[in-house]
Amino acid sequence: MASLTFEHIKKTYGSQSNLTVKDFDLEVRDKELLVLVGPSGCGKSTTLRMVAGLESISEGSLYIGGQLVNDMPPKERDIAMVFQNYALYPHMTVFENMAFGLKLRKMRKKEIAERVHAAANILEIEHLLKRKPKALSGGQRQRVALGRSIVRVPKVFLMDEPLSNLDAKLRVTMRTEISKLHQRLEATIIYVTHDQTEAMTMGDRIVVMNEGDIQQVASPHDIYHYPANLFVAGFIGSPGMNFLKGVIEEQHGELFFSNPAVRLLIPKMKGKLLKEKGYAGEEMIAGVRPEHITHVTEQKKPFASSFKARVEVNENLGSELIVHVSAGDERLTVRLDSSTSLAAGDSIQLAVKMDKAVFFDADTEQAVY
Ligand code: ADP
Ligand code: MG
């Protein structure tokens, strides 16, 4: 196994002047499961393909296990790649499919058999070794495709949306399988997905990309609670974070986030920070997660960070209630306990847990911490 170092990697296709990958600078630790996540077209596959040697690197240096590999042919890089479209050979059995790459390498029959059985054991597909792909379910096929890559014991695994073709339930199961596989193999894995839930549940660390740029590299916890900017905040989390435009107002030594729909008291520590950074009187964007808005049922005195809203649509998910509300021109999503009883058209009082709110500079869209 090995670590990987991306040093200011850039990619342009052909004579295009725009960069598909802009300045990818990152260290992937040995035995880490690193997830690259971002919307379609942001450069995830291009980045993986440069690691595999299937695309040239336009600028920068790539090291695998300390060795510069920019000009090393794919075969010599000792990397296994698993794609979304796992093409198994239909006329071969599962065993033969898994053994194929090793045979090409002229490995001894006995060792091939040992490796295939070991991989099949890890993936729990030993009972399928004699079957042909057409006699397998989608999940079993994907397992065989994984098996084909692990028999080689490569330095690094690259996985490009390997679960995208599976149905929702199977995807959830296979996510866990890959996480377990990662632990058993103690492998370095770069895993690409456009699905933020997949990224959050699988990654040791997550790299959020947009338009060829790294937006943030952090643990799932930090990406969720301390997003670096508006893009990351909006991309991670479902239902997504609410964004409110407003002004930071100062009154009697206290700061409020204010717009025609809401007037929210900013906690002292946060207020102090915003003031120090010169945001008093300035326009900002406040980001509030749906679970950080609560329903105020008994209100004795006006609550400093509450506001009036109208229920538009309710979605009862069994475990929780997703409520879409309007307040003035604002549209917000709120996550409440499923026992809450609300109907469209209800006028309700909501409160924001302001200590959890994230403030963004209205111009740069960077979070202010
Ligand atoms: P992702 O995997 O994040 O969806 P890709 O890395 O596949 O994104 O693509 C990033 C951008 O590069 C896209 O705009 C895509 O159209 C472009 N692109 C990908 N492959 C090529 C190619 N071979 N030639 C020219 N442009 C390409
Ligand atoms: Mg892709």
Distance N terminus to C terminus? Answer: 37 Å
Shape: elongated
H-E order: EEEHEEEHHHEHEHEEHHEEEHEEEEEEEE
Low-confidence stretches: none
Q: Describe the biggest sheet?
A: 6 strands, mixed
Bound small molecules, deduplicated: adenosine-5'-diphosphate, magnesium ion
Rg, rounded, reads: 25 Å
Considering DSSP H and I runs of 4 or more, what fraction of the residues is helical? 25-40%
What structural class do you assign from the helix and strand content? alpha+beta
For the secondary structure, the number of strands is 21
Within the largest sheet, what's the order of strands? 6-7-8-3-9-10
**What is the helix tally?**
9
Mean pLDDT: 93
Strand content: 25-35%
Pfam family, one: ABC_tran
Domain ABC transporter: 4-236
Keywords: ATP-binding, Nucleotide-binding, Transport
Protein name: Multiple sugar ABC transporter (ATP-binding protein)
Description:
This protein has 369 residues and is of the alpha+beta class. The protein has nine helices and 21 strands. The chain has helices spanning 44-52, 94-104, 109-123, 138-150, 168-185, 196-202, 220-225, 230-235, 268-276, and strands spanning 4-11, 21-28, 33-37, 59-64, 67-68, 79-82, 156-160, 188-193, 205-210, 213-218, 242-251, 254-258, 263-265, 283-288, 293-295, 306-316, 320-327, 330-337, 347-352, 358-361, 367-368. It has a six-stranded mixed β-sheet, sandwiched between helices. It has a six-stranded antiparallel β-sheet with strand order 13-12-11-14-20-21. Helix 5 links the parallel strand 7 (156-160) and strand 8 (188-193). The protein is elongated and about 80 Å long. Bound molecules: adenosine-5'-diphosphate (ADP) and magnesium ion (MG). Residues 44-45, 160 line the site of magnesium ion.
